[in-house]
Amino acid sequence: MLTRFLTEVRVKFNPFSPRSKSARLFLTLIPPNARATGMKIEAKMLPRTSKEPASLDVKFRDGKELSLDIDKMRITEVMEQVDRHSRMLARKEELSGN
């Protein structure tokens, strides 16, 4: 997963719910030095009895924000959504020569 174009990640999930697996896996895919490189990561864990769906909000370097209801998504679908815009930004960066 391309994380160098992410500036902010906000995840909200119930860690005990099996439907929150995508949220937990997404957090594991973020590199350990992400905060040191300037990425803001906010993870909110909901109480065990919460019925609120898991959600993911991602902000990219170009200002685009992506909000996903990951309660019903697999991790591959989540990665595909995030990587789609990251690849576009990588292509723009490559073409501009930066």
How would you describe the overall organization of this protein?
Helix content is 32%, strand content 24%. It has helices at 21-29, 75-96; strands spanning 6-13, 40-45, 55-60, 65-68. The chain starts with 5 loop residues before the first strand and ends with a helix. The protein has a single domain, classed as 3-Layer(aba) Sandwich (Glutaredoxin), CATH 3.40.30. It is α+β, with helices and mostly antiparallel strands and 98 residues long. It has a four-stranded mixed beta sheet, covered by helices on one side. Helix 1 links the parallel strand 1 (6-13) and strand 2. The model has no long low-confidence stretch (mean pLDDT 92). It holds the Pfam family MRP_L53. Belongs to the mitochondrion-specific ribosomal protein mL53 family. It is found in: Mitochondrion.
Short description:
It is found in: Mitochondrion. With 98 residues, the chain is of the alpha+beta class.
Radius of gyration: 14 Å
CATH architecture: 3-Layer(aba) Sandwich
CATH topology: Glutaredoxin
Structural class computed from helices and strand pairing: alpha+beta
Instruction: Provide the β-strand percentage band.
Output: 15-25%
Report the major sheet: 4 strands, mixed
**How many strand elements?**
4
Shape by Cα distribution: elongated
Strand order of the largest sheet: 2-1-3-4
- CATH superfamily descriptor: Glutaredoxin
Counted by DSSP, the helix tally is 2
CATH class: Alpha Beta
Low-confidence stretches: none
Helical residue percent band: 25-40%
* Mean model confidence by pLDDT: 92
How would you spell out the order of helices and strands?
A: EHEEEH
Terminal CA distance reads: 21 Å
**What number of domains?**
1
Subcellular location: Mitochondrion
Family: Belongs to the mitochondrion-specific ribosomal protein mL53 family.
Main location: mitochondrion
InterPro entries: Ribosomal_mL53, Ribosomal_mL53_fung
